[in-house]
Amino acid sequence: MASEERNGDHLLQLHPEEVGQNDRQLPREIERCSGLSYNDFFWRYMHKNLPVIITDVSNDWECRNWTVPQEARDLNSNLSSSSINFDYLKGKISNCPVPVADCNSSYFNSHTKLELNFHDYLEKWRSGIENQSSTTQEVNSNVDPTSRDNLYLKDWHLAAQMPGYNFYKVPKYFASDWLNEQLIDQQKDDYRFVYMGPKNSWTSYHADVFGSFSWSTNIVGLKKWLIMPPGEELKLNDRLGNPPFSIDEKMLDEHNVRYYTINQRANEAVFVPSGWCHQVWNLTDTISINHNWFNACNIAMVWQNLRNNLKAVCKEISDCQQMDNFEAHCQTMLRASFGINYLDFIELLEFIATRRLVEATAATKFLLFDRYRMNDYHVQYDLECLRKITRTLTEDPTVQRSALQLEDRCRHLLARLEF
Q: What span, in angstroms and rounded, lies between the C-alpha atoms of 151 and 113?
């Protein structure tokens, strides 16, 4: 097999799927892998929509400096010595506003949101560690853990906010990313995030936005995941179809849910497939880098989610069906609730198609995340998936009757793709 590195950049080597590889049976447990090739990850996990843990992904990332090495902590006799390098973080990143969730408080089935300045957040975190350390030294401490601050810095667009600070590198496995490829190029809000939180902070039960893939790499700390394959989440919904805010093993066992437990260590990436609902706890002070994304492997699932959410919106305001521009109002509400609407989805397909068509005919290919190139088979695979999804869109009744001539746009796109 050709090398995955060439001329200083990295080549995403994709080859035709081998006969017999298309078995999508659920594994007994989630595999932990090291040294996977891109091709193996693509066909064994991403294409089959199966999770995997990949080790040794952040060895050379600059953000490893955000942590205090174990050796340095061992030499520090201070019992409150932390794994977080607070001083380095304050020196490297300005005191900018950051989004924070209060894990001890909920509001409308989500954690209460607030905004803090970054350095203030770090000081609260550091003070919490010191106070917890002093409390644990008291033999008869009756301090209620829920009375302490439990603030989780989440969904922080640090990479977009500081584009000159290259604090991590997207692992090759996750470089085929249609969503962020478009958003970064067009300088729109992307789906690249930093998470930082103390021990016992957590993310509530959810499925990822759009029905996207996600990946999460621990820079420091230990996380516990409960994650279930698509369809199992229906066993947990109430009689109105609403999911629970939080889950645990007892609840899952009582409802006969098939699920997996992941204990994610530092320098490991968890690949979360489309539609796999999950909840995550930080068992120690933790920092992670996370992306949401989709590509040729799950674009059909994202489209189906988009259609289902439009149906839900139309049903919600069905009593207004006789109003002028009812479908346009539904598309506006769809964008507000789901994050994108039909026009946004088609524009993304047009953007990716334009790039892949250029790559199919030119010697020079676009760099993905300033680092990766696709081989010729990968480009052709993307184009074929674009053809399939665009044909599907031309058959959709909402697309066909849209006042925005969405059907014409799809047919024009299809004509370009069927060269």
A: 10
